Amino acid sequence: MWFLRVTKQYLPHVARLCLISTFLEDGIRMWLQWSEQRDYIDTTWSCGYLLASSFVFLNLLGQLTGCILVLSRNFVQYACFGLFGIIALQTIAYSILWDLKFLMRNLALGGGLLLLLAESRSEGKSMFAGVPTMRESSPKQYMQLGGRVLLVLMFMTLLHFDASFFSVVQNIVGTALMILVAIGFKTKLAALTLVVWLFAINVYFNAFWTIPVYKPMHDFLKYDFFQTMSVIGGLLLVVALGPGGVSMDEKKKEW
């Protein structure tokens, strides 16, 4: 693919930056909106000033530290596990568990982290380049499979169930591309198409920069925008690294 040849050196870096963008934005927001976040947690859970402050501090420190480690390529696996913990903590604290749309988006974000974790395992093994090894390890293969399947959940939240021509076409094309990524068939092309589609939807529907900062909708759209950018980062990792061993693309090589 021409696109991959041109962007081979830069694509993984862009993918990682996109992937951690929502954690970076949320960590900064915790700093800038410390009192509002603390008061929200205290009011929702009646946990007291100290526990609510500890929650905000843990989110701030965990997310910013994880982002720095991922971008600097140091202790990436530990950073991923820490960010997984942040997702789980926020899912419970903000009652996302009971909101299907937000839950599916958080799971898609987890899928991106799984792909990042798989990439970090690849880099670790490349230290022994030239040394005969067994076939690609199962854990990495299944992390890539799990990451692809979870990323697809983001697109399920974008389906529109109405009878308009545009919605029907969008649902059919989107569903077909989702299936291709999930099963790993023509994976890089399907993932790249989804990147373009999702980016266009994101810029159009989540244009938080057009809303005044003092309005609640600004923060809501900003959160959605960067979370979507993280899923785009996960898809770019699929484009850069391929679908992994558990995929139809890989099986075709054996036929």
UniProtKB/TrEMBL annotation:
UniProt keyword Transport, yes or no: yes
| Annotated compartments | Endoplasmic reticulum membrane; Endoplasmic reticulum-Golgi intermediate compartment membrane; Golgi apparatus membrane
The main place the protein resides is endoplasmic reticulum
Task: Tell whether Endoplasmic reticulum is among the UniProt keywords.
Answer: yes
Q: Which domain of life is it from?
A: Eukaryota
| Membrane topology, from the record | Multi-pass membrane protein
TM spans, by residue?
49-71, 78-97, 165-185, 192-213, 225-246
Stored Pfam families = SURF4 (PF02077)
| InterPro entries reported in the protein's UniProt record | Surf1/Surf4 (IPR045214), Surf4 (IPR002995)
Q: Which UniProt keywords apply?
A: Endoplasmic reticulum, Golgi apparatus, Membrane, Protein transport, Transmembrane, Transmembrane helix, Transport
Task: Say which family it is in.
Answer: Belongs to the SURF4 family.
Q: What is this protein called?
A: Surfeit locus protein 4
Naturally occurring in which organism (per UniProt): Galeopterus variegatus
Gene name as annotated:
SURF4
